[in-house]
Amino acid sequence: MLYFRGEGYIVQKPLGTYGKVGEDKPGVDDVAAWKSPVINELRKFGFIERGCHISELACLRWLGKVAHSGEGFGDDVTKNEIVLTEVEPSKGKGISDKNHGVNQLLRAKQEEIAKKLFVCFPFVNEDVEKIKEEIRNKNKPAVGAILFDDKGVYIQDSETFPDGKADLKIAEYEANLKKALLNNFYFDEIAEMIRELNVDTENRGVGEVLVDFQNKVETGYILEKLNRVSVVA
């Protein structure tokens, strides 16, 4: 998660399990890293430097703004992108086991939501380059790897996979992001937003009103509000 956070992604637990086929074949559900133009807004307001964990967005009011905003870090994000990572406890589970690791990722690729796929596991007393080669030869296009031993972390980039359904999934992740951002506000502030946005509250339950509100409120509107109440670092 820290690696992808540093690369400018929003990281979190996936919103669903991808690539699961039958009870005996677990799916990818460890780490999702994603990008969309919403990152540009978070950087513009100075709430994140490069990337973040989704839980940080629920605490921005009290965490304060970053010392150096990531606005201008590389190019602006113009496209949606999802990266999935499956984490295993050993090389055997990561590469060889038919139901885990790389094989899980190759099942998940069929859903066409992730541009890149990574397997992550530790190793002991082995040549990291040979492990990378073994992963590269497992399938084409090849998944990437985040490997580590007692000497450090080793990254092998993923080749790209078809991700024609990424936009639909990003919409779900952005809706989840809005919920995280709304955790920064007190009840009276949420009530004021509901009034400002003319959300219908007459003869409706709290759940109905909140669902309508969350569908109606825009991320930019939330960030403008948050910008006014955030602690200055």
Can you walk through the features of this model?
The model has no long low-confidence stretch (mean pLDDT 93). This protein is an alpha/beta fold and 233 residues long. A 7-stranded mixed sheet has the order 3-1-2-4-5-6-7. It has helices at residues 2-6, 38-44, 60-63, 91-96, 102-108, 128-136, 166-182, 187-196, 206-216, 219-229, and strands spanning 10-12, 31-35, 52-53, 81-87, 116-122, 144-149, 152-156. β6 (144-149) and β7 form a beta hairpin.
The percent range for strand residues is 15-25%
Helix-residue proportion = 25-40%
Total separate domains? 1
N-to-C CA distance: 24 Å
Order of helices and strands: HEEHEHEHHEHEEHHHH
Shape label? elongated
User: Helices and strands: which structural class?
Assistant: alpha/beta
The total of helices stands at 10
| Quaternary class | single chain
Biggest pleated sheet: 7 strands, mixed
Mean pLDDT over all positions? 93
- Going across the major beta sheet, what is the strand order? 3-1-2-4-5-6-7
Radius of gyration: 20 Å
Low-confidence stretches: none
Count of β-strands: 7
Can you give me a brief rundown of this structure?
This protein is of the alpha/beta class.
Topology diagram in text:
Blueprint: H1 2-6, E1 10-12, E2 31-35, H2 38-44, E3 52-53, H3 60-63, E4 81-87, H4 91-96, H5 102-108, E5 116-122, H6 128-136, E6 144-149, E7 152-156, H7 166-182, H8 187-196, H9 206-216, H10 219-229
Parallel strand pairs: 1-3, 4-5, 5-6
Antiparallel strand pairs: 1-2, 2-4, 6-7
